Amino acid sequence: MLMWIANWAARHAPTPEKQAERALHELRMELFRAEQQVMDAQLRAEYFRARLLFLEDVTRQGIEAVSDQRKGQQELMQPSRSGPRLTAAQ
Fold it and tell me: According to the UniProt record, where is the region Disordered (predicted)?
C-alpha cells in the first residue's frame, strides 16, 4: 500500500511542467481580458474625442451651422438604394 501511495504521489506531483501548463492557461485569459480593456478604453477615448470636437464646433460656429454640416455628411454616407424594394404581403 505504501508503494502505491508513493507511485501515485510521484505521478501526480505538481511538477514545474504541470504548474507551467496551468499558469499558461490563466495568463492567456488575463491577456485576453487586458486586451479587451485596451479596446474598450480606445473606444471610450474615440467617443469623448468626437464629443469634444462637436462641442468645440458648436461653441465656435453655432448649433445651426454644425447641424447643417452634419446633415450634409450623413446624406453623403447613406448608400443609395438601387435594388428592388420589399413590400409586406397583404
Answer: 65-90
